[in-house]
Amino acid sequence: MNKRTFADSLRKSVALLIALLCISSLSATNPQKKEMKELNVKKVSLANVSVENVPALLDEEKVPFQSVNTVNWEAYPYKPEVQFRIAHTDDAILLHYKVKEASVRAVAAGDNGAVWEDACVEFFSIPAGDGIYYNVECNCVGTLLIGAGAGRNNREHAPQEVMDKVQRWSSLGRESFEERIGECNWELALVIPYSAFFKHQFTNLDGKAIRANFYKCGDNLQTPHFLSWNPIGLEKPNFHCPEFFGTLNFE
Question: Which GO terms describe its biological process (predicted)?
Fold first, then answer.
């Protein structure tokens, strides 16, 4: 091999290596290049079962827990232990969360307040194909926020009569409190009727696939954190990003 041929070959090899490194870097920083998570949602019967017995019902139905454990931003490395499980009925979505974290707080005064500043779990979903997504956010004592819209700004809150139909149970009770420092385990159960998706008219989700993500945050806790079920490829904390939702397949 003469010098010119060797030099040309070397240049091609270096160019190929740089291209491969760029592709690798892009895949690492953009989860859209990865396979997004999917979850099958079991259908169960809620007949004569109150919200506080939802955890026992999901135990009986052998609905497994999923972890909310993705740390998306290096500036917020704290990772409490967070699990959720989900099922559906003829007229509602059932959610059950289990959380273990270093402190808890429940200051939000009422529904549609700043629950994300407390110890908070969240469920975002796109139940229809029109681009409108819902954020269902709930602090550790069941104070709830429900919003709808196509983007992060100008979101419409659900009216109180809609909020009142969402059944809630918390192992910490329902009274607000200032931050409690020290390891705490808590659970939350929600029965979310389809009427909570107040911009749409749903009778059931049987056989449907919807895009969704689950989160855990606590903006004003001693140790702020922002965890997700499906990874988020953005530079700064932001849960209002449907492009990073996974998929829920309803039986």
Answer: carbohydrate catabolic process
